[in-house]
Design goal:
Helix content: 10-25%
Strand content: 35-45%
Distance between the termini: 189 Å
CATH topology of the largest domain: Immunoglobulin-like
Low-confidence stretches: 1-38, 437-462
CATH superfamily of the largest domain: Immunoglobulins
Structural class: mainly beta
Number of domains: 5
Largest sheet: 7 strands, mixed
CATH class of the largest domain: Mainly Beta
Number of strands: 39
Shape: elongated
């Protein structure tokens, strides 16, 4: 069989002297390593536009710039056996660019570049780490205990995966002073994997806006989608605004819920916050009228998650500091519990003024709290803990001496302390009627001589009419008696004549 040239070369090489073979191998190895050897030229600069953290499938440009004119630039990717790319320099021949049309998890990684000038290769640039985001579902970012911070205070930001477990989390601060922190995830008592970042001291000189990402150690350049933006609110001491709702504090599923924040101090913007670490909602949709500035916060169709305590803040565009918080506004969502309590009144739905009234709210389900509402009342809701009696859970809402102000339509709701902003369906309405004390004549008024009471204002119109009729009857009887006596005198005079 005829040998190939390669086989002949190796065959002839077997007869060479050991020294010649060693020199030949050394020369070949040096020739292969020459293009990638570090030279004496200064290392170039490597950067990415629009930045090193790129959403999945977005384009990216990598720039490499040397200290002098070059004949060629090369780009290496960590883990790749060959050079990732080679480019001829652009005018003025000291830099070039490498384009990535779509950023993916395969193009993410660590890169270095170097250049050739006058037959000498430069040192490698500092590594550039390219990160792709959006490969996994986003984590959740919240503030503990809330995103409201006093000037100079600190706050804890919690990042945890809603859809999957991550080994590590990265917290990024947005804005001009962009920075980031990385932390391993820890498992809490509920089994959730999370990272807790301590942020502060917080000062109102600039905005404090954050996002977080999750990733795994074996793929450190492949991140999740970013969390929703969380902005810390630095609360100051200026005048607090007012927070209102047109729907009332109790709403039902399917309603449209809108909260309104207003102030007479002429704020440029308003922010709405909800307790338990929820993110701030900011609004600059303002209306100015009669010296008031206000903003509406449409919260969409009511669901169970809308229940909670809300506050709002006012701010100015030229300052990052916000006002003192408004008074809290509780939003309660009815219909979240299957129970419907019953409402009754003692001694009855019609009572006299001054009489004691007790409204009784009952349920056969295990309930620990009852709420009583009055239609059209502007005051706070009445809330009582339930008591167990005869296999019933109940609460007694007692009033003092009844007045006309107690009259109206009442409903009651049941609730549990574990979900204080979730209510049952309302009870059937109960209408309470309070009558004046003189509507039913008391025994003190029923005297034989029909003398009036020393307090005439206690008489009702009906009593006055009856007294007037009695007086009229007395007048008529007097006239008739007078006429009868006059007729008798005339008869006697005629007889004498």
């Amino acid at each position: 069989m005829r040998r190939t040239h390669k086989e002949d070369w190796f065959h002839r090489g077997d007869t060479m002297s050991p020294s010649l073979t060693s020199l030949l191998c050394l020369g070949l190895s040096m020739g292969l390593r020459t293009p990638v050897q570090a030279g004496t030229l200064p290392k170039p600069t490597l950067w990415a536009e629009p930045g090193p953290v790129i959403p999945q499938f977005s384009p990216l440009t990598i720039w490499c710039q040397g200290a002098m004119q070059a004949q060629e630039f090369r780009l290496d990717k960590e883990g790749s056996p060959a050079s990732w790319g080679t480019q001829i320099p652009l005018d003025p021949r000291n830099k070039t660019k490498f384009s990535i049309t779509q950023m993916t998890e395969h193009t993410a990684g660590r890169y270095q570049c170097y250049y050739l000038s006058q037959g000498v290769w430069s040192e490698h640039s500092d590594p550039l780490e390219l990160v792709v985001t959006g490969v996994y579902r986003e984590p959740s970012l919240s503030a503990l205990p809330s995103p409201i911070v006093t000037p100079g205070g600190t706050v804890t930001l919690k990042c945890h995966g809603l859809w999957q477990r991550f080994d590590r989390y990265i917290l990024t601060k947005e804005g001009e002073d962009r920075s980031s922190w990385t932390m391993d995830s820890q498992q809490d008592l509920s089994g959730q994997f999370q990272a807790l970042f301590s942020v502060g001291p917080v000062i109102p000189s600039h905005r404090w806006t954050f996002r977080c990402y999750g990733y795994n150690r074996n793929r450190p350049q492949v991140w999740s989608q970013p969390s929703d933006v969380l902005e810390l609110l630095v609360s100051g001491g200026s005048g607090k605004p007012s927070l209102l709702t047109q729907q009332g504090p109790i709403v039902t599923s399917g309603q449209k819920l809108t909260l309104q924040c207003l102030s007479d101090l002429g704020y440029d913007r308003f922010a709405l916050s909800k307790e338990e670490g929820d993110n701030l909602i900011e609004s600059t949709i303002l209306q100015f009228q009669t010296g008031l500035s206000q903003a509406n916060f449409p919260l969409g169709t009511v669901g169970g998650f809308h229940g909670g305590q809300y506050r709002c803040y006012g701010g100015h565009n030229l300052s990052s500091e916000w006002s003192a918080p408004s008074d809290p506004l509780d939003i309660l969502v009815a219909g979240q519990l299957p129970d419907r309590p019953s409402l009754s009144v003692q001694p009855g739905p019609t009572v006299a003024s001054g009489e004691k009234v007790t409204l009784l709210c009952q349920s056969q389900s295990w309930i620990d709290t009852f709420l009583l509402t009055k239609e059209g009342a502007a005051g706070p809701l009445l809330r009582l803990r339930s008591e167990s009696r005869a296999q019933q859970h109940q609460a007694e809402f007692s009033t003092g001496p009844a007045t006309s102000a107690h009259g109206g339509t009442y409903r009651c709701y049941s609730s549990v302390t574990t979900f204080p902003y979730w209510l049952s369906q309302p009870s059937d309405p109960l209408e309470l009627l309070v009558k004046g004390a003189a509507d039913t004549i008391s025994t003190s008024h029923k005297t034989s001589d029909c003398k009036s009471d020393s307090h005439p204002q206690d008489y009702t119109v009906g009593n006055l009419i009856r007294m007037g009729l009695a007086g009229l009857v007395l007048v008529v009887l007097g006239v008739l008696l007078f006429q009868a006596q006059d007729s008798e005198r005339m008869a006697q005079a005629a007889t004498r004549t």
